[in-house]
Amino acid sequence: MARLRYDQLDKALSKQIAPLYVVTGDETLLVQEACDKIRQAAKARGYLERELYHTDAGFQWDTLINSANSLSLFAEKKIIEIRIHNGKPGDAGSKTLIEYCQRISNENLLLLIFPKIDKRTQNTKWFKALDASGDIVSIWPVSLQQMPRWIEERLGAAGLHANQDAIEILCAKTEGNLLAAVQEIEKLKLIVTDKVIDASTMADAVTDSARYDVFSLTDKAIIGDSRAAVASLNGLRAEGTEATLVLWALSREIRTLASIKEGVENGKSLDFCAKQAGVWDNRKAMIKQAVNRLQLRQIHLLVRKSSNADKMIKGIIKGDVWNVLLDIVLSLTGNDALNARSTKLGLQSFRS
Fold first, then answer.
1. Separation of alpha carbons 162 and 167, rounded Å
2. What CATH number matches the domain at 214-351, 1.10.10.10, 1.10.10.60, 1.10.1420.10, 1.20.272.10?
3. How far is it, in rounded angstroms, from Cα 190 to Cα 347?
4. How far, in Å, are 37, 59, 93, 205, 216 from residue 68 at the CA level?
């Protein structure tokens, strides 16, 4: 049968419905949407009943054969949907899938949902049987480079248009999270009246309802604005933001800076290293500021401080994690909260 990408599915479904579909991938939103497309196309062709199964501890693979052989009380055709969460049907499942493919019928549509299937699994007998009997829909992640185009297409499908700066803001805000991007676009549909969304409108629309947010905190720290960064940190704490979320945002920036700084010191260009690290174009200028401001040993020390903060949150070591987060924020801005001797003693006490 056919092997399809997500963007080929609509055209394939408009021509015919296969008796079997395998949807595989780790991009949850696109997997869900691909399955919705298959169900809708099947329903339009008379598959009016749906049976859903999960391969948890209580699932028996005989259920598939029994369901395929049983007559429906409400419809002539039905969809049998099985979600294989671990991607491995096991011995019983392998035999059942092969048996099902040998007696496949157009009266049933079998929809199998897997996480990403690797090359080794594709060479198994059961997968080859599925491949020969139906369509394989492979869902690939949307890369950082592809994200602006993906968002532009989604905006267009929603009847919205945005300039490049606005699209980059939404990309930066959602950080590759497709579900978050779709939710923001749905919100834009309700509140935006302009024909073309500009950067200012997008920034206002996608800003979190909280006055302080972790993205604002990290940006202020990266550009070296210690006063504003500390105000954001205090605001997050006052509003009850989890320290875990703040640490996650700071640690992500610190890892990015470490990767870029190490590359630069090994003779690579800063622009190249920033691109390799997945830095969006609209954030390159501020990242460059931090890379030029901080020495590699300072960034490595920040990595260690972040690790200690994580241990505090988990209760492995004692201490006030918000004090450590304040130290990290100030160090990122280039203003050490502690002198070198105090920092060394503090790190030693963390390890003890």
1. 6
2. 1.20.272.10
3. 50
4. 22, 16, 15, 49, 54
> What mean pLDDT is predicted for residues 48-71?
88
Please give the DSSP secondary-structure letter assigned to residue 142: P
The Cα-based distances of 187 to 168, 190, 197, 202, 210 in angstroms read: 17, 5, 13, 11, 16
* Cα dihedral across residues 250, 255, 259, 264: positive or negative: positive
**Which of 3.40.228.10, 1.10.3720.10, 3.90.1640.10, 3.40.50.300 would CATH assign to domain 3-139?**
3.40.50.300
d(CA 119, CA 309): 40
CB atoms within 10 A of CB 287: 21
Instruction: Say how far apart CA 147 and CA 141 lie, in whole Å.
Output: 10
**75-95 per-position pLDDT tens digit:** 578 999 999 988 889 999 999
